[in-house]
Amino acid sequence: MNGLFITFEGPEGAGKTTILQAAADQLKKNGYSVLATREPGGIEISERIREVILNPSHTAMDPKTEALLYAAARRQHLVEKVKPALEEGKIVLCDRFIDSSLAYQGYARGLGIDEVYSVNRFAIGSMMPNVTIYFDIDPEEGMKRINLNHAREKNRLDLEKLHFHQLVQKGYEEVMNRFPGRFRIVDASQNVEHVLKRVNNIIEGALKENQL
């Protein structure tokens, strides 16, 4: 791959989406060709799957069904949008990728990180991010932000109790222990300007490392 694949991860309410868009805008100003996208979604098929997964009325969804749907959406998004962009030499900034499934379904839902990793490796092959930026925030603070942000899309995961989101945080800690070389941690409790500066510095370092 000629491009650079950077994923943004973190619990609900960490502010990933806002920072990702701002970082993409900065890269474009600096003359880079950038694709900003998200999971699940990013293309029509995956957005349809997103509607099924995150629909607040689908509370009966089995955890394994949820994990498989995420993997299916990820596969289609990868082959239809992400890989072609990387082959064109673009910088791809993606809001969530495989680590979300490992933390949410693997750990918090109790399916097992290894089991969910196996399903996702079938979906994505050897395609892993060059760098993953983790937005670290206390789950209570993240949920407060969600409740205060009336413009935010409320989804099925937002309906989960605080304990679930605490498990997600622990899940991410476990995932970072497994892939320490890929992760860069950002204190997401800071103000937007501070977080964006830190993220831009991380991306700049990744560009230099990959000679882009």
Automatic annotation (TrEMBL):
Its EC number is 2.7.4.9. GO terms for molecular function: kinase activity. Transmembrane segments: none annotated. CDD domains: TMPK. Residues 8-198 form the Thymidylate kinase-like domain. Pfam families: Thymidylate_kin. It comes from the Bacteria. It catalyses: dTMP + ATP = dTDP + ADP. NCBIfam families: DTMP_kinase. Belongs to the thymidylate kinase family. This is Thymidylate kinase. The lineage of its organism: Bacteria, Bacillati, Bacillota, Bacilli, Bacillales.
